[in-house]
Design goal:
Number of helices: 8
Order of helices and strands: HHHEHHHHEH
Structural class: mainly alpha
Radius of gyration: 17 Å
Shape: globular
Helix content: 40-55%
Strand content: under 5%
Distance between the termini: 29 Å
Oligomer: single chain
């Protein structure tokens, strides 16, 4: 499975985009109406998956310059939030370790996902986060064409499989601990070359998160660790 095609960033392009450390919000914190309205029709889980996918492209764009495993582990671990048995720890890297256009860009992608996790239980407009990530991808990724093709393919897939309409407009239950997020997705949903089947996603996601744990991803928490470390029960 490949979210980012091999060789798409070879040879690596220098980080020659505008970068203002103290005002990095200007590069993503806005909501283009056409895109945002389109993504509002997707489930919260679909928008979270889309944000994870775009973050993969951002990290891959800088992999030749900075292939920090912590960043990759965190982005991959965000999938655990959709699993019944796991969650992703909330990780806030020290500012002094993440400065400059490359490290700053990587942590910005992570920060958008931090925000998604923090607000996940509060009926968030998760389309905001996937839109922000796409905005930022457009600011830092070169060449941008392959990313744009990927993004459109995945949005169209989700419009067929994980729109609120396709999922039957789920309603909140009075006794639920969070608002409806939509059906579970798995990383296979982000590979246009895979014949993605939504009904297989829960098992595929479980296998994926189990593998992250076995591979030593410290950002994946099981149910007991979630309750102990953050007081959040699923």
């Amino acid at each position: 499975m490949a979210i980012v095609p091999a060789g798409v960033f070879a040879p690596p392009h220098p980080a020659d985009f505008e970068w203002e450390e103290t005002n990095y919000l200007q590069y993503f914190h806005f909501l283009p109406t056409v895109l945002h309205d389109r993504l509002l029709n997707l489930s919260h889980n679909a928008n979270l998956a889309l944000a994870i996918g775009s973050a993969n492209w951002i990290l891959a764009r800088f992999a030749a310059w900075d292939d920090d495993r912590k960043a990759w582990d965190f982005v991959n671990a965000v999938w655990a939030e959709m699993s019944e048995d796991y969650a992703c720890t909330h990780y806030y890297p020290p500012d002094d370790e993440w400065r400059g256009p490359i490290r700053g860009s990587i942590v910005t992608a992570m920060t958008i996902l931090f925000d998604a996790l923090d607000e996940r239980g509060n009926n968030p407009t998760m389309a905001d986060r996937s839109t922000w990530m796409d905005n930022f991808a457009h600011h830092v990724i070169t060449p941008i064409g392959p990313y744009e093709i990927w993004f459109e393919q995945i949005v169209r897939r989700f419009e067929r499989t994980h729109s609120w309409e396709a999922e039957g407009w789920p309603k909140p239950d009075l006794f639920d601990d969070r608002f409806p997020q939509g059906r579970v997705l798995s990383p296979e949903a982000l590979d246009p070359e895979i014949d993605y089947r939504p009904e297989a996603a829960p098992d595929a996601l479980r296998r994926y998160v189990d593998r992250l744990r076995r591979d030593g991803n410290l950002f994946v928490l099981d149910a007991d660790e979630v309750a102990d470390s953050q007081g959040r029960r699923r």
